[in-house]
Design brief:
Elements (H helix, E strand, L loop, with lengths): L4 H17 L5 E5 L4 E6 L6 E9 L3 H8 L7 H4 L5 E7 L4 E8 L10 E11 L5 E7 L12 E2 L1 E2 L2 E8 L2 E11 L1 E2 L6 H27 L1
Parallel strand pairs: 6-8
Antiparallel strand pairs: 1-2, 2-3, 3-11, 4-5, 5-6, 6-7, 7-10, 9-12, 10-11
Helix pairs in contact: 2-4
């Protein structure tokens, strides 16, 4: 049976909206000048869901330009965790099935990964933009040698306008990833908070460079 990609994408977006409205149970684990990171046990798999929240010195449009999940987008240039991003199938104007590959990480303890997700882009009436994703299978995307297949559970980023400050954006992101393979839990638990801090730091540089 064919996967209901659009339905799965909508489901991921609904989960993001629930997480955004649900302040309970988050425990802080890392704070930098750019982001505060917290976590709680995931309801989707046997790991954690991580929440990153920070204010970026750029308009929501500029932030979106840097993070939007499109072929040939800017993300592969600034995000050290995205080696390659390709659209496998465009389902509609706002939904696509994508494959992301990541380089080895954490002093090569974590070998290169690949992720196949359905991704949804959505704009709200207040100007907030959401990119939401969750793992799927696709006939054109069987597992490749030299990569461990990881799985993203519902995850995403909200670019939220900052009232009265057109050159500020609140970026609220949720990461929920099973890296696959056989990694010690201590490695996984150290990797994600550091990774999210790096994501915000590199994105901040990218939006500044975009405006320069």
């Amino acid at each position: 049976p064919a996967m209901d990609y659009a339905g799965l994408a909508e489901g991921a977006a609904e989960k993001m909206e629930l997480y955004r409205r649900d302040p309970d149970g988050w425990r802080g684990c890392r704070r930098t000048s750019e982001v505060s990171v917290s976590w709680r046990p995931s309801a989707e798999f046997a790991g954690n869901v991580y929440r990153g929240e920070g204010i970026l010195p750029a308009s929501p449009e500029d932030v979106w330009e840097c993070i939007k999940p499109v072929a040939g987008g800017r993300r592969t240039k600034w995000d050290q965790n995205v080696k390659d991003f390709e659209v496998i199938e465009a389902i509609s104007d706002t939904v696509s099935v994508c494959r992301t590959t990541t380089p080895s990480a954490f002093m090569r303890i974590i070998s290169p990964r690949e992720f196949v997700d359905v991704v949804l882009m959505k704009e709200y009436e207040d100007g907030t933009m959401l990119s939401a994703a969750t793992n799927v299978e696709h006939p054109l995307c069987s597992p490749q040698p030299n990569f461990v297949r990881g799985f993203n559970y519902p995850c995403g980023c909200f670019c939220i306008p900052f009232p009265g400050e057109p050159n500020k954006t609140q970026l609220l992101s949720f990461f929920q990833t099973d890296l696959g393979g056989y990694l010690p839990q201590t490695v996984v638990d150290s990797f994600f908070p550091a990774n999210i801090a790096g994501f915000y730091s590199n994105l901040t540089k990218a939006v500044k460079a975009l405006k320069a």
